[in-house]
Amino acid sequence: MLSIKVAIMPDKELSTRLERMQAELGRAGLDAYIVSAEENIWYLTNLVYKPEERPFFIVVPAEGRPTLVVPTLEARHLGTPPIDSDVVSYWEFPSPEGAGWADVLRNAVKGRLSIGVEGKMKASVARELKDLSPVVADVVEGLRLVKSPYEIERIRASARIASASMGNLLGTASFGASVIETFTVSKSVQTKLIKSGDFNPLSTNLLTVAWPAPQSAMPHSVPPLGMRFGTPGPNVAMCYFRVNGYAAECERTFFLDPPGAEDRERFAEVEEARRRAFSMIRPGVLCSELDEAANGYLRASGYGDRLLHRSGHGIGLGNHEEPWLAAGDDRPLRENMVVSVEPGLYFDDRGGYRHSDTVLVTKDGYEILSDYPTDIEAMTIGRGGLGARVRSRVVQAALGIG
User: Fold this and answer.
1) Residues facing 356 on adjacent strands
2) Residue 114 class from Cβ within 10 Å (0-12 exposed, 13-18 middle, 19+ buried)?
3) Can you give the three-state secondary structure of 187-209, one letter per residue?
4) What is the pLDDT of residues 191-245, one digit of tens each?
5) Residue (of 228, 185, 211) closest to 389 by Cα position
6) What is the pLDDT of residue 242?
7) pLDDT at residue 325 above 80?
8) How would you label 85-99 residue by residue, b for 16+ Cβ within 10 Å and e otherwise?
């Protein structure tokens, strides 16, 4: 399935990306490069493609015009290519011998001696190309590490939506409310995007959810839809968005009942870990050093057995992408990278404590793009008034939750 983004991307943005990629191919000694990952196709062409069983490829030569290899079904839909390129098509999948995508792709790289491919390339595709002895090199991912001014504005817009949505999400989390009500916030976000006229359903993913205590101790679990808020302890809310191709996230730990001394201590420890991470963010600092500043502090404070994950990750076209704020990533931060900062502590009997923000690395430091309160007073929202309880009962009745 093929779609062109609604929001207009400047032609210069795409042409600059291609120029940078071809320069990188020259430095790497590659004659051509085969792009097949959905996000990388989007990055280079402004096309959103969901391949299903029919793959889409871009063959990028070190010099000259790229070639788009597409199924016949999409050739007419494509119309005029969004970049200066040739378009060739193959007949369906599966195809008779000599007419399939592999045959057309081989012809597109004919005469190229050194061919690069993505590490994310599907195994089924890699098997078809193994006799070409392709070189695995994540060239496009390397280009995507540092964001252009255009990309920063798109991420900034997504972060604004995520921040505003956090307030709406917390408004659903009253005493006795169910998890499913937190999911419904994303529907209102989608409606607003549609009304704005700036909405591409294929490059937009919207997830709002909150984990009640103590389920919040398992941050990658799916909380039961009928699970209710009200057990004392930390709840964790998340707005995890990709809006028209660019991602952002905002996560907050919140309390319905006043937090006790233990909650306050753990909350403060995570906030201190975040403060230490933020104090390190600037170009030249290694990702691993930033992780050590945050998670290293929590380990030194005696919480080593309460850690579940790294301190953060890159954000861009994907919600999780390079670089990784982890012990194993020794790459330096660079100006105009965008990362999350989200160290956390997890206690099975009580819940999890974690804030996450979308953060831009600037020339001299950082800018937090997801602007929502983080202090424990603001995150103690109370059990909810009569209006919140009535709204909760209406939603539960409409969704058949007894």
Assistant:
1) 251
2) middle
3) HHHHHHHHHHCCCCCCCCEEEEE
4) 999 999 889 898 999 999 999 999 999 998 988 889 999 999 999 999 999 999 9
5) 228
6) 97
7) yes
8) beeebbbeeebeeee
DSSP, collapsed to helix, strand or coil, labels residue 313 as strand
Residues 6+ away with beta carbon under 8 Å from 184: 172, 208, 395
Max Cα-Cα span within the chain: 73
Contact in structure between 190 and 206 (CB atoms under 8 Å): yes
Enumerate domains of the chain plus CATH numbers.
2-144 (3.40.350.10), 149-398 (3.90.230.10)
Tokens (6 digits) for 174? 């009253």
**69-82 burial: b if 16+ Cβ within 10 Å, else e:** bbbeebeeebeebb
- What token pair was written down for 344? 């956390």
Burial class (CB in 10 A: 0-12, 13-18, 19+), 246: buried
* Model confidence pLDDT, tens digit, residues 135-166: 999 999 999 999 999 999 999 999 999 999 99
pTM, full prediction? 0.93
**Rounded distance, CA 18 to CA 280, Å?**
33
Q: Is the pLDDT of residue 385 over 90?
A: no
Strands (E), 270-369: 312-314, 321-325, 338-341, 344-347, 351-354, 357-361, 366-368
Alpha-carbon span 359 to 366, nearest angstrom = 7
| Cα–Cα dist 391/317, whole Å | 35
Tokens of 192: 């607003």
The amino acid present at 106, given as its one-letter code, is R
**340-379 pLDDT, tens per residue?**
999 999 999 999 999 999 999 999 999 999 999 999 999 9
